[in-house]
Amino acid sequence: MTRTRWALGLLLLAGCDAGTGTLDQVDPDAIPAQPTWSAPVEQVFDLYCNGCHSEAAQTGALEGYAYDTCATAKRGRGETLEVMRGGTMPPPTGLLMPAAARLTLERWFAQGAPCD
Ligand code: HEC
Question: How many domains does the chain have?
Answer without folding.
Answer: 1
